[in-house]
Amino acid sequence: MTKEKKGGKLIVFSAPSGSGKTTIVRHLLRNDDLNLEFSVSATSRSPRGKEVHGKDYYFLSLHDFKHKMKNEEFLEWEEVYRDNFYGTLHSEIERIWAMGKNVIFDIDVVGGLRIKKKYPERTLAVFIKPPSVEELKIRLKKRSTESEEKINMRIAKASVEMATAPRFDFIILNDTLEHALEEAERLVAEHIAKPIFKDVSEEE
C-alpha cells in the first residue's frame, strides 16, 4: 500500500440492478470538488451494449479472472451468477490513490460490504433503494439489454440484496432522482471532509 494518500477515501454505492446507482455515481464524478475517480471493476462476463474495456469494466476471461483470484490480486470478488465473476483489483485502488484522489465504487452489495469491512474508517457505504421491486422490473425491461429470464434472475436477487440495506452507513430512497442526487452529494462531501484515521487492516 502507498504510505501517503492525499485523497485516500473510499465511497461505495451499492444497490440491486436498475436502482439508479450508476446514474448517481456518474453525477458525482462530474463534481470536481469531490476529487473522485471511478474504480473500474473486473468481470468475467462479456461486454453489453457499448461497454468499453478499461472504462466500464476490465473484461477478463474466466481463466484469467480465476488466476488473479488465486494470486490474491483482488480486494474483493464475488461470483454473482454461475461463472459470472466481478471483483476489485488491488492495483485499481493503488492507481487512484497514487493520483491523490478518492475512490468511488458502483458495486454489488456483497463486494461493497467487504470493502467497508476491510477499510471501515476510510469507507462510506451507501445503499440505493428503489421505490419498489415492481418499479425495478419496469426499469430493467426499459434497458432492453437482457432476456426476460435474466431480468427475472435479477429481480429474485434484488429481494435478497434489499435485506442487506441496514448494514450500510446510509440508505437513499431513489423515488425522485433530483432528491437522491442531492442527498448523495451531501453524504459524500461530508465523508471527504473528515480527517483520515488509519484502519487496523492497513497495519497488517
Characterise this structure:
The protein has 204 residues and is α/β, with parallel strands linked by helices. It has a single domain, classed as 3-Layer(aba) Sandwich (Rossmann fold). Helices cover 39% and strands 22% of the residues. The protein contains seven helices and nine strands. The chain has a five-stranded parallel beta sheet, sandwiched between helices. Strands 4-3-6-5 form a four-stranded mixed beta sheet, sandwiched between helices. Strand 5 and strand 6 form a beta hairpin.
Helix content: 25-40%
| Extended strand count | 9
Strand content: 15-25%
Mean pLDDT: 88
Shape: globular
CA-based gyration radius = 17 Å
Mind describing the biggest β-sheet? 5 strands, parallel
State the main characteristics:
204 residues; alpha/beta; Rossmann fold; five-stranded parallel sheet; 9 strands; 39% helix; 22% strand; disordered N terminus
Question: Briefly, what is this?
Answer:
The protein is α/β, with parallel strands linked by helices and 204 residues long.
List the helices and strands and how they pair.
Layout: E1 10-14, H1 21-29, E2 36-38, E3 41-43, E4 57-59, H2 62-70, E5 74-81, E6 84-89, H3 90-98, E7 102-107, H4 109-118, E8 123-129, H5 133-143, H6 148-162, E9 170-173, H7 177-193
Parallel strand pairs: 1-7, 1-8, 2-7, 3-4, 8-9
Antiparallel strand pairs: 3-6, 5-6
Helix pairs in contact: 5-6
